[in-house]
Amino acid sequence: MSQKPEANPVVTAADSLPRQVVAAGTGTTMQVLIGSEQAPNFAMRRFTMEPGGGMPLHTNQVEHEQFVLRGRARVRIGGETHEVKAGDVVFIPAGVPHDYVAGDEEPFEFLCLVPNGPDRIEILDAGC
Q: Which pTM value belongs to this model?
């Protein structure tokens, strides 16, 4: 069994990292906080959805582990809709359709951890 190369510790101010507009979303940006260049197993991303923004129904090939930092949103996972808020944790299994609609009061922001490796995103419904 081959060993993965040892990773080096990294400390970075999250707000110094670039934000990318998520083209499939509405009012949604994403930051890669820790990527495959820093960590061999998982990536950490921060998503921010402006009030009323969101992501359309889609699937990913990889699972998602999420922690809500602020705001509220409606998150549909498979056939169930959940109202989530700051302090909630969300698990989305690989291949399960999901979407997000941020609340109207403040931005909705969450950390999303995913395994490093190939991921194919399939948009199932372009409306948010």
A: 0.91
